[in-house]
Amino acid sequence: MKNWKYLLMTTMVGSALALGACGNASTSETTETPAAETEKPQEETAVLEGKVAGDGSSTVAPIMEAIVEEYAAVQNKVQVTVGVSGTGGGFEKFIAGSTDFANASRPIKDEEKEKLAAAGIDFTEFKVAYDGLSLVVNKDNTWVDSLTVEDLKKMWVEDGSVKKWSDINPEWPDEEIVFYSPGTDSGTYDYFDEVVLDEADLVKTATLSEDDNVLVQGVQGDKNAIGYFGYAYYLANKDTLKVVKVEGVEPTNETIESGEYSPLSRPLFVYVKNSAVKENPATYDFMKYTLENAGDMAEAVGYVKLPDADYDKGLADLEGLK
Q1: Same fold for the domain at 49-130+267-321 and the one at 134-250?
Q2: How many Å apart are CA 133 and CA 292, to the nearest integer?
Q3: Nearest residue to 311 via CA among 128, 85, 181, 160
Q4: Residues with Cβ < 8 Å from 183, sequence gap 6 or more?
Q5: What is the spatial distance between Cα 133 and Cα 263, in angstroms, rounded to a whole number?
Q6: Alpha helix locations (H) across the chain?
Q7: Between the CA of residue 21 and those of 15, 26, 27, 184, what are the distances in Å?
Q8: Number of C-beta neighbours around residue 303 at 10 A
Q9: Which CATH fold topology does 134-250 show?
Q10: Is 70 exposed, middle or buried (0-12, 13-18, 19+ CB in 10 A)?
Q11: Fewer CB within 10 Å, N- or C-terminus of the chain?
């Protein structure tokens, strides 16, 4: 999934070619420029040292992992660690004061805000990308192409029955459906719970995991399986999974950004502790780098970038915290 390296290398090569072209053009000039004008010092990035810690959503993780890796090449004396314990788990650590930022695939809940206030932690919300929560089935599933939200509710809500494909459509196999879902600490679970389950109980036979790769492997290994997770995880495994349309719409960059892929399009967030930005130059610098590069990194790993105005607003908000 780390194809952001290719994008960055392409950019670097293009820049090198452009510089080379400029250099060749300058050799044809006969007028000499005074040394005082040519020897302008190059702007250098200030070297920082420090530690920055974050935790949270497995959905946001691919974006942050890409950013952390590239940031290390810019500030190799800043140690950035990012755990993946799910959105809820990330907020727990954020509330406990053990992290500087929390990655989230849903907005922060009121009760989490209250706990942060009680702990004396002020925070700022930043949007970093769009995601389209993707329903997938096994490649050998030839009968499912599209499901409605009502179909999903009938399948995924616990009602005491054994769920079979034929319950959804009599023409489908009389086989039991095998379910794979993010765990209850996941923001993806919370979002699915809100827009599909309507806060009813998830089917009890579902296999739950905070690790989206476990869900991917589960669906890959069973013809009767269905699962859901972030769009990037589908794209990374699209050769071995089949995506299901929802209300007749397939998740794509265009349908996610436009909101046509409804109701499963959603923004992704990073929540930052204000005091960490003010007191730790490394935290400010890393968050600035994150907002400056989140759009490109989101696209590189399989999500959808926000409009530039959103990133500009985020940078202005960050600057206001200093």
Answers
A1: yes
A2: 25
A3: 128
A4: 86, 189, 208, 209, 210
A5: 9
A6: 4-26, 35-38, 61-74, 86-96, 110-118, 149-156, 165-168, 187-192, 212-220, 231-236, 253-258, 274-279, 281-301, 308-321
A7: 10, 9, 10, 55
A8: 27
A9: D-Maltodextrin-Binding Protein; domain 2 (3.40.190)
A10: middle
A11: C
**Can you tell me the distance from the alpha carbon of 17 to that of 5, in angstroms, rounded to the nearest whole number?**
18
Domain boundaries, the chain: 49-130+267-321, 134-250
C-alpha span between 182 and 264 (Å, rounded): 15
As a CATH number, domain 49-130+267-321 is 3.40.190.10
What's this model's pTM, rounded to 2 decimal places?
A: 0.79
Residue by residue, pLDDT tens for the chain (322 residues) are: 444 443 443 333 333 323 333 333 333 333 344 444 444 344 456 789 999 999 999 999 999 999 999 999 999 999 999 999 999 999 999 999 999 999 999 999 999 999 999 999 999 999 999 999 999 999 999 999 999 999 999 999 999 999 999 999 999 999 999 999 999 989 999 999 999 999 899 999 999 998 999 999 999 999 999 999 999 999 999 999 999 999 999 999 999 999 999 999 999 999 999 999 999 999 999 999 999 999 999 999 999 999 999 999 999 999 999 8
Beta bridge mates, 79: 51
